[in-house]
Write a structure and sequence with these properties.
Strand content: 25-35%
Protein name: FTP domain-containing protein
Structural class: alpha+beta
Pfam family, one: FTP
CATH topology of one domain: TATA-Binding Protein
Largest sheet: 6 strands, antiparallel
Organism: Nocardioides daeguensis
Radius of gyration: 33 Å
CATH class of one domain: Alpha Beta
Keywords: Hydrolase, Metal-binding, Metalloprotease, Protease, Zinc
InterPro entries: FTP_domain
Distance between the termini: 83 Å
Order of helices and strands: EEHHEEHEEEE
Oligomer: single chain
């Protein structure tokens, strides 16, 4: 085929720098693809992301919770959701409600409070299942589990603490 004027077709990865100088890159396909993906990944890193703004808590509900309570009140909200994650009082979160000194009283007092302020915790009263009340040396613990359309929501427990005097001292969840 010499002298036909058509040089042989170069193999993949072969480059001609000059007529008599041949450079052959013998890179495996995986490496060539990896280099390409690295360039795409580097381009994605350069793209600026929109800042994420934290949700703001509803100050009117939190203020109502503070005003209703007796004693000093501490409230912690989630920076991501703006919902109440913990509230406690040195005396009672619901002093005008019934006494929670008994098991049924603790369950009723915690249930009334959680039903009233469910939206502050990121749920609704309808989404909270039947409470489970446990006696403790400090009083009673009342647990509520959230469900959505009949399916339990993972990690959605609300826990209320009622002390031996029947005061609702904290709710977390």
């Amino acid at each position: 085929m010499r002298g036909s004027g058509n040089p042989p077709r170069p193999a993949e990865g072969t480059f001609y720098l000059e007529e008599n100088i041949v450079v052959r890159l013998n890179l495996p396909d995986a490496l060539r693809k990896g280099v390409g993906l690295s360039l795409v990944g580097a381009a994605l890193v350069v793209i600026p992301a929109a800042p994420i703004k934290a949700a703001q808590p509803d100050p009117s509900v939190v203020e109502q919770m503070r005003n209703e309570a007796a004693g000093d009140v501490a409230v912690t909200t989630s920076p991501a959701t703006g919902k109440v994650g913990f509230i406690s009082a040195t005396e009672d979160l619901a002093p005008s409600e019934r006494s929670g000194a008994t098991r049924s009283g603790a369950q009723a007092k915690a249930g009334d409070y959680v039903d009233k302020y469910a939206r502050a915790f990121g749920t609704t009263a309808a989404q909270l299942g039947n409470p489970v009340t446990t006696a403790t040396p400090a009083g009673h613990t009342v647990d509520f589990t959230q469900s959505y359309q009949g399916v339990p929501v993972f990690g959605s427990k609300l826990r209320a603490q009622v002390d031996t005097d029947g005061d609702l001292v904290s709710v977390s969840g």
